[in-house]
Amino acid sequence: MEAIVRALTPRPNRAVPAGLRATVQLATGTGKSFVGAVAAQRLAPRGVVMVVVPTLDLLTQMHASWVEAGRAGEALAVCSLVQDELPEGMPGTTHPLVIGSWIDRATASGRPLTLYSTYAAAGSVEDAYAAWRERAGRELVPLDLMVCDEAHRSSGSAEKAWTVVHDQEAIPAARRLYMTATPRVWQPPKRRRRDEEEGQEVGQDDGQVIEQDGGQEVGRGRRGVWQPLPEELAVSMDDQAVYGPQVYTLGLAEAIDRGLLAPFEVVVLELRDPETDTEAAAAQPVPWGAGAGEAEDGSEDQVPVKRVAAMQAGLLKVAAEHGLQRTITFHPRTLEARYFAETLNQTAERLSGEDPDEFPEEVWSQWLSGEHPADYRRYILGDFGRTEEDDGLAYRVLANCRVLGEGVDMPGADSILLQGRGSMVDIVQAIGRALRMKPGEGKVARIVVPVFLRAGEPPGDIMESDSYGPLVKVLTAIRSHDARLVEALAVPQRSGRRTTGARAELAGAPGEGEGGEEWSGAFVLPVRFQSKVSQTALALFVATQVFRSESVYWKEGMEHCRKWVEAHGSLDVPYNAMVGANGNFPLGKWLSDRRHERASGDMPAYRVVLLDSLGMIWSVSDARFEAGLAWARQWAAEHHGSLAAPARASIGGYAIGTWLVELRAQAEVPAGESGALPEARRRALEAIDPWWAPSWPITWQRSYAAARAWWLACDGVVDWPGLPVDTSFEGEAIGRWVRAQRGAWASLAEEQRELLLALGIEEDPELAAEVAAKAAKATRPVRARADRFAQHLQALQRFAEREGHVRVPRQHKEPLEVPAMAAEGAEEAGAEDGAVEVVLLGLGAWLSNQRSRRAKLTFEQLVALGRAGVEWAAEVAPVRRETEDTGVQA
């Protein structure tokens, strides 16, 4: 009330030409009528108030509620009801001048006046203002307040007559208060993208959203076309220019937590479809009688009698299991409602004969439709509210077809049967029938949803079967009522309360869930199946079926993820993994696409939670690093804390050596550059072995680790100078290695020396001198290949001059004077020290090698050989010239 009064109280010196407007969303059954009446008393206790409702039944009920809430003064019904059908003392009319005179007289006298109107008759009030302007020559005073109950009825197309309640010029009002449980939001149409048609990820399912209840679609256009309702003609409840701001919201979950509505659960009846699974359906113990109104030959029977009988048996079993007392069933046609009620006792009698202790012989069963007179409906509803003490019948079932509509008061029911038909608003209002309760009643309501499985469909296979459409429709309607309830279902719970919750959870009383887990009292919607359905499967079903934006491609991917986790224990899926019955679903690529989608910020938060519930690996690199790190710890534990593993090393089938080689290569890349090892990974490896990636060869570190292990095995007492050269430990020749380090001390890095000194290994001066002498007599620098070619060519020319041909024997060696350095492939001839030395060149072998590698010789080299008398070189040279000119490889 504070929010309403604050929103609809005029501000000083602030004109509002269209009048003040505000919207209140209250869960169905939480008392919108009472709130509207109190708001009128606060805002216009002595003014003219107009209350607009969708039905005639609700009009008379609204009058009684407002009078009970304290609304005084005169009341006028603007509707088609005759006087005998109206409450005593409230006249009715649709004549414009009569309505105008009532408004004018009330404003002149200062007495309160309440106009009770249906949306269909609201045009009569518009006519009253127009007629008064024309006949009396003056304007009627604007209404002090207009209360639009079930305000979603005034949304949709601006061209329909009911939207007159929004028009300030047609019906001027200082304030408008819109009240609803299911706000309808219009969304502009979208064309289907090409990838939708190809089964790729989409943002909207088949058809175009025309209008939505609480964000859920209630209508759709044809596939691939524009929705015909243009934006300028759409009346949407999120348009504050029409409905004002939503100043207060009481969701379904909050209303249940506060004890205003009954906690409830969804019970899924998994039945066999008699039309597609005749054999299995015949096994269902469900009798049926003649259809209501059918001919003897059955030619006029349009009631699916076998389906109805199966629903009857299922409902009676649920009633017996949960101790239900009153159930309302909702049917799309009057004939089906009548048949359900008139044959229900045949099913009860059959079940009672099979199990008299479980099922009663007779139940109270009646039906209602809009064709019944108001007096008869009131009589049946009164009889429905009786108890076993009144007539001996413990269980009562009322079948109805479009008669127990919005806001109509009736005796409380503890359960309803919904077939998932009708609009979202119809389903929400039907659910409200079961959730209403008296203060302190403490009941638990059941929403019974029958599904018919086709031949070959196992019960509980909710991800693969299309037969669970009625459950999708009901959960979608609940989501439109309070999205939090269904969004919570999309996240699996380890406690399993959602499918097997205890009664204390439903009743809203603190207690313990399964496994002794303490329950906080916040309402969690259980969905119960007759078959076994896992928490993960239910979460996937809700996320992919109830959230209408999910595509078939997404649903299929999530189902394959679930199966992969069951089979492999994690979602570490290779990129090229193909799964499915035919092996045609690219699960690895699908997961990779999801990672990119999240990284770009395009993935909704609930999808992230859903994938996380399956153990999604968002970074394959991180996951594989962690796996490798675990193996690295084990390797180090088995190798004296060292990660100096050989490149081909493996442990437990894991290629630890290759993994470390790759990381060492990354560690050599400067920080900040592409391909560099992240600092966090470097620290993690250094925590295992600080010298896992040394600047010196890893073979040195591996030998050091073996020497250190030897040292530890000897309790730190080792005579390194006296260690035999042939000593080996764990496959490493540590004796030879230690001697090499003591002799090459000067060439070691400072860190290497520190590591050796820590083991007691020191430099050996005599050995170091020996090593230095050998280093002084180092191998002479190798000549360049071009120089060697020139030397051998020169030797060939000398051979040709001496022998008169170039047929050099394979083993022939030609002496040649060259500058004083060793030539590759030459044998030194003992020349004295000086600037020139004589070498023996293997000319025969060289010439043979040139012929075998002639494809790699340059044109100039071939020409030189040809001039020296080599015939094959002279033949190849012209071809090489041509190929080099054209750029074609020979």
Look at the structure and give the CATH class of the largest domain.
Answer: Alpha Beta
Strand content: 5-15%
Low-confidence segments, ≥5 residues, pLDDT <50?
189-227, 286-293, 494-521, 822-834
* Shape type: elongated
The secondary structure category is alpha/beta
Order of strands, main sheet, comes to: 3-4-2-5-7-1-12
CATH topology of the largest domain: Rossmann fold
C-alpha termini separation: 94 Å
Largest β sheet strand count, sense and barrel closure: 7 strands, parallel
Structure description:
- By secondary structure, the protein is α/β, with parallel strands linked by helices.
- The strands form 7 sheets. Strands 3-4-2-5-7-1-12 form a 7-stranded parallel sheet, with helices on both faces. Strands 15-16-14-17-18-13-21 form a 7-stranded parallel sheet, sandwiched between helices.
SSE diagram, text form:
Blueprint: H1 2-7, E1 20-26, H2 32-43, E2 48-53, H3 56-68, E3 74-78, H4 96-109, E4 113-118, H5 122-135, E5 145-148, E6 156-157, E7 175-180, E8 184-185, H6 194-197, E9 212-213, E10 216-217, E11 234-235, H7 240-243, E12 246-250, H8 252-257, E13 264-272, H9 278-282, H10 305-322, E14 326-330, H11 334-354, E15 364-369, H12 374-384, H13 388-391, E16 396-401, E17 415-417, H14 424-435, E18 445-453, H15 469-481, H16 483-489, H17 497-500, H18 503-507, E19 511-512, E20 518-519, E21 527-529, H19 535-546, H20 552-568, E22 578-579, E23 585-586, H21 587-599, H22 605-613, H23 620-638, H24 656-667, H25 679-688, H26 698-713, H27 734-743, H28 750-758, H29 765-776, H30 785-803, E24 814-819, E25 826-828, E26 836-841, H31 843-852, H32 859-867, H33 871-886
Parallel strand pairs: 1-7, 1-12, 2-4, 2-5, 3-4, 5-7, 13-18, 13-21, 14-16, 14-17, 15-16, 17-18
Antiparallel strand pairs: 6-11, 8-9, 9-10, 19-20, 22-23, 24-26, 25-26
Helix pairs in contact: 2-3, 4-5, 10-11, 14-15, 15-16, 19-20, 19-22, 23-25, 32-33
